[in-house]
Amino acid sequence: MREGQAKVLFEDEIKRVYAVAASRRHGNRDVAILDFSFRLGLRVKEISALIIDDVVEANGVLRDSFFLTGGQSKGDRGRTIYLSNKKLRKNLESYLDEREDDLNRHLFKSQKTAFSPNTMQMLLKRLYDDAGIKGAKSHSGRRTFATRLIEAGYDIKSVSVLMGHSSIQTTARYISENPIRLGEMVAAL
After folding, report:
1. Residue tagged active-site, from 7, 29, 39, 139
2. Model confidence at 130: pLDDT above 70
3. Which contacts of 128-136 are long-range, i.e. CB under 8 A and separated by 24 or more positions?
4. Which fold has domain 11-187?
5. Which among 18, 95, 128, 174 is annotated as catalytic?
6. First to last CA, the chain
7. Rounded to an integer, what distance in angstroms lies between the CA atom of residue 63 and that of residue 130?
8. Is 90 a catalytic residue?
9. Residue tagged active-site, from 16, 39, 142, 148
10. Is 26 among the residues known to form the active site?
11. Is residue 182's pLDDT more than 80?
């Protein structure tokens, strides 16, 4: 891990932070936010910019995918976000079912207003701290997303597209070396 980089979480740490999120007052919301970070690889700026219409069709059904516009993302580069993960869909539906609709169409709200990227960052930091995870930052979910995809055998070009990177070199900087996996690779020879 380079100096200042957000920590990539191991499976037990991911489970711990989800358990902490689920136990909180706004558990369904916080779990859904974690999903957008860990299961979709979105930045806090992107998560906080989402509106309900991004993820829900006019008839109330969850979309299979949506386009994250350049204005919602970094560097004015848009990309398609796939809502195909079953756990994410279940968690998002639970959150939307309990949410009171009002004129605020932002997907995630802090009290009665939309999250800013800064308040979203503070929420994630609190969740990591409460889970006892040192070195985790708001970008940890995004780095963990990229690393887990590569470890699962997906090619770096596809991961780069999902991340919205213009270069696979940028994606490569996100991926953490896993000493356990490296040892298993050598043992398999």
Report:
1. 139
2. yes
3. 128/17, 130/20, 131/13, 131/16, 131/17, 131/19, 131/20, 132/16, 133/7, 133/9, 133/13, 133/16, 133/17, 134/7, 135/1, 135/6, 135/7, 136/6, 136/7, 136/9, 136/13, 136/17
4. hpI Integrase; Chain A (1.10.443)
5. 174
6. 26
7. 32
8. no
9. 142
10. no
11. no
Is residue 120's pLDDT more than 60? Answer: yes
d(CA 40, CA 32): 11
Q: What is the pLDDT of residue 114?
A: 87
- Percent over 70 (pLDDT), the chain: 92
Phi, psi dihedral angles at 163 (to 5 degrees) = -80, -20
**142 in catalytic set:** yes
Q: Are 171 and 146 in contact (CB under 8 A)?
A: yes
Residue 137 annotated in active site: no
- pTM, whole model, 2 decimals? 0.90
Task: Tell me if residue 43 is catalytic.
Answer: yes
Q: What percent of the chain clears pLDDT 90, i.e. is strictly above it?
A: 66
Instruction: Give the pLDDT score at 166.
Output: 86
> Hey, what are 38's tokens?
């860990």
106 classed as catalytic = no
**Residues 74, 77, 87, 105: which is the catalytic one?**
74
Tell me the pLDDT band of 103, cut-offs 50, 70 and 90: very low
Q: Which of 43, 79, 143, 148 is catalytic?
A: 43
